[in-house]
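Team,

Forwarding the record for the chain on the shared tracking sheet. I've put the sequence and predicted structure together so nobody has to dig through attachments.
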Amino acid sequence: MLARLALRIGGRYAARSPRLIFASVERRKDLRHDLALRTAEDVAEELGSMKGALMKLGQMASYIDEDMPETFRTAMARLQHTAPPMSADLASAVIVEELGDAPEKVFARWDPLPFAAASIGQVHRAITRDGRAVAVKVQYPGIARSITSDLRNVGLLRKIAAAAFPGLDAQSLIEELGERLKEELDYKLEAENQDLFARYYEGHPFVHIPEVVRELSTERVLTSELLVGKRFEELQGWDQHERDLAAETIYRFVFRSLYRLLAFNGDPHPGNYLFEGGGRVSFLDFGLTKHFIASDLTPLVDGARFMVVEPDAEKFRAAMERAGFLRAGAPVSTQAVVDRFRQFYGTVSRDAPVTITPAAASAIVKRFFDARSPLAPYSDVPRNYAILQRINLGLYAVLGSLNATANWRRITEEIWPFVNAPPSTPMGVAEARWEAQRRQKEPVSA
């Protein structure tokens, strides 16, 4: 299948290139637009049917850089929450193997048509015997073999990643993605991750995590509370105030999960969000979850402290070296190091409202993947932080597509553990109230 995809794309370029060479400038533009659209459709179709690791890369490419051709991004966006599904009979067979009987007998009601299909499994609506509306994620038969096969094609994965993200040495990302994908195959582990987030965010005023139905979940079937809400594409049509509220929720969820829970959903593409008014957001799919220990985050915390809160160039450089983003003793000036990384802190560098535009988000991505930087030979993305960087870049892409405005500095200072600032927005006030109640419920250690 990988060979077929390469031949289809390569063959089309070869067939069309003579026409491009001899076309007028105006006609050449039209031909390239048509070529991009048809090739993007082919890639979406092929990655969707292959699923697994390659589909993950397709999902990432759909939202991470607004400079990609719009036709490519549009076709890739289909992979955020829709992919070619398996047949009703196949899904039913998985339910029989995992839950012991046909879905029509296990559940009071079962919809044989999936309402979402993604890289590991597809999701069906159902009603449990006790009357709960649930979403049932059913893993594709043979997906484990497919992912293993995908991950063996390291060369192709690197080429695809390099085409989507020029200048990135994708090895760490591919290795980390491979480990996380192997974990994602185990729905029991995903259920544990989802439970972790659901327990932590229980009662939160604007973050909701679906409850897992444990008795109807196995290694290949995951049954959760069925949530309602609008997709990201619909949110983009709401007024700017509502988009800003949703953006603040996403931002708070990402950084609170990282700094306070020491874990986050490593698959942040917009297909995993459901939106309601007033900033209420439901977060779905916790298969690709990354866990940290406190010492893992210490260099990142120090980087933020010494770049933004207590500026100290030498201490910032030392933090980047400890984290592994910069080779220790690299023959570059400390000022060059600060200049290289400063843009990544741009949203929190000023105590003022900042609008994250698509162009600003794209600039951050370009800066990250800039192979021409004098620091490039001495920079790396350590494997432990590879998925974290994906989260950061994906977050800015999402916020940029919403043209989100907020005083990100003050919001972040509420969450940074070395600041713990008071609430700065109405949502911050509500979250602080929830946090106080949550702490009161925590057991007192002996």
